[in-house]
């Protein structure tokens, strides 16, 4: 049958649900080998899929595993997912904010691969934080305090994991239908009734331009809606890292500052918009201004920060490190990088900053690599800022002296400084819901 399927794909014939399910199940069970599956995936990468085919692919991957039942949770559960950016610590900030607003966060997050960080690695920089809970502990935590964040279990959409590994090997990661089905299979299997997607666009993202970002966002929203989940996508800019900190413990510190009401402007703006859309997707309110007020009030009255402490403590994390963040462990070496000319910061290539952090040990080049939680980069300047020659533009946090020069070269390359004033640019590019797909 697989030979017929590949033949059909060659002449651009639409595949049936049975044919797509056959390929996914066959590969998952080991009956279809890497060679045949690679042809199937490369065909999708090169020629795309119709919407129905993307949905069948997503559905087939979901059905290779368990679909979490959140029926025992006494709150409406909402999920949020980012397509991956540099310095993205939004989940750590929004989870307690949303839980303080009365909704449930029963979140399964991933680890970092390459230059984009994973929430689980960031949370593991808190000593003692348990990334695994039993089903019962997970459900109880959400019922009791509204939030639990654990690492993704292998029982959700296992075919996606196997297919993703093959895509990575054969260069088929960057394909809109494959990304849409991969992300949505895990989100739908995770059980939340409402899903908000942060689709990143720019130099540090999978989607480098708006057309592709809109296509990806629309496909994912449609898949979510077809599966009966209220789904909204926010397209946000990734032409500079989010906030100032890039690196696991460094990002946790920035997340804590944000929860205390002292976050960087871009990070706060994105958290507010995604948070508002989470309240809207969960039918808490359909008034965006009201949603903003609700989110602001739980930050201002301290309840969101208190919820963060309660949640970290419940998952075994050492909360004493957050007393003024004084006892947050730091890397051994800090190196300040300065501007070699005067001007305005036009771009900061997020990808290069992410790579610098990865080289220092803050990310993984390969799945097996161990993370150093305490290294990374903290920017001193953002796009639009004026700089004088000799001003600090970033600080490197390193534990291995030998890696500093390479990281420094990448950071210097990432900064585009010239003498033209920068027009302000918008972080939130577009919001896509079922009403405008
Ligand atoms: N994240 C995923 O989970 N899958 C992809 O294909 C890309 C990003």
Task: Tell me what the structure shows.
- The protein has helices spanning 2-10, 17-28, 34-47, 51-62, 90-100, 119-123, 135-145, 158-170, 176-189, 210-226, 248-259, 265-281, 288-300, 303-314, 350-362, 404-414, and strands at residues 78-82, 105-109, 147-151, 194-201, 230-237, 245-246, 333-338, 343-348, 376-379, 386-387, 392-398, 415-418, 428-433.
- Helix 10 (210-226) links the parallel strand 4 (194-201) and strand 5 (230-237).
- With 437 residues, it is α/β, with parallel strands linked by helices.
- The relative contact order is 0.14.
- It has a 4-stranded mixed sheet, sandwiched between helices. It has a 4-stranded antiparallel sheet with strand order 6-9-11-7.
- Helix 15 runs antiparallel to helix 16 (404-414).
- The model has no long low-confidence stretch (mean pLDDT 94).
- It binds uracil (URA).
- Residues 83-84, 164, 173, 178-179, 182-183 line the site of uracil.
Largest sheet: 4 strands, mixed
Strands side by side in the biggest sheet: 1-4-5-13
Number of strands: 13
Number of helices: 16
Distance linking N and C termini = 34 Å
Are there runs of 5+ residues with pLDDT below 50, and where? none
Instruction: Give helix and strand order, one letter per element, not per position.
Output: HHHHEHEHHEHHEHEEHHHHEEHEEEHEE
């Amino acid at each position: 049958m697989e030979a017929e399927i590949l033949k059909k794909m060659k002449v651009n014939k639409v595949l049936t649900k049975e044919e797509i399910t056959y390929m996914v199940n066959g590969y998952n069970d080991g009956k279809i080998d890497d060679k045949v599956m690679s042809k199937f995936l490369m065909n999708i990468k090169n020629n795309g899929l119709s919407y129905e085919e993307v949905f069948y692919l997503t559905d087939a991957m979901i059905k290779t595993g368990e679909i979490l039942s959140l029926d025992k949770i006494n709150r409406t559960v909402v999920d949020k997912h980012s397509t991956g950016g540099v310095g993205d610590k939004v989940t750590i900030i929004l989870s307690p904010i949303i839980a303080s607003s009365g909704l449930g966060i029963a979140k399964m997050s991933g680890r970092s691969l390459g230059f984009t960080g994973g929430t689980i690695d960031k949370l593991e920089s808190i000593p003692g934080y348990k990334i695994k809970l039993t089903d019962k502990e997970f459900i109880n935590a959400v019922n009791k305090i509204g939030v639990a964040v654990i690492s993704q279990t292998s029982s959700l959409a296992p075919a996606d994991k196997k297919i993703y590994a093959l895509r990575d090997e054969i260069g088929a990661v960057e394909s809109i239908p494959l990304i849409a089905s991969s992300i949505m299979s895990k989100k739908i299997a995770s059980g939340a009734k409402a899903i908000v997607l942060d689709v990143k666009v720019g130099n540090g993202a999978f989607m480098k331009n708006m057309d592709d970002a809109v296509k990806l966002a629309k496909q994912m929203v449609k898949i979510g809606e077809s599966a009966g989940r209220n789904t909204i996508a926010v397209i946000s800019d990734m032409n500079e890292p989010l906030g100032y900190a890039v690196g696991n413990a460094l990002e946790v510190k920035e997340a804590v500052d944000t929860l205390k009401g002292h976050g960087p402007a871009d990070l706060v703006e994105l958290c507010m918009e995604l948070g508002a859309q989470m309240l809207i997707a969960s039918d808490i309110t359909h008034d965006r201004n009201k949603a903003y007020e609700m989110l602001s009030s739980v930050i201002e009255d301290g309840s969101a920060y208190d919820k963060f402490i309660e949640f970290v403590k419940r998952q075994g994390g050492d909360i004493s490190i957050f007393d003024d963040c004084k006892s947050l462990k730091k890397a051994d070496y800090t190196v300040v990088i300065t501007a070699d000319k005067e001007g305005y910061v036009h771009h900061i290539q997020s990808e290069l900053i992410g790579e610098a952090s990865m080289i220092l040990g803050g990310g993984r080049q390969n799945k097996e690599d161990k993370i150093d939680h305490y290294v990374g980069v903290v920017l001193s300047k953002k796009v639009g800022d004026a700089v004088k020659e000799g001003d600090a533009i970033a600080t490197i946090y390193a534990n291995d002296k030998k890696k500093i020069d390479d990281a420094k070269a990448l950071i210097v390359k990432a900064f585009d400084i010239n003498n033209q004033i920068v027009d302000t640019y918008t972080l939130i590019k577009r919001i896509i819901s079922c009403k405008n797909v």
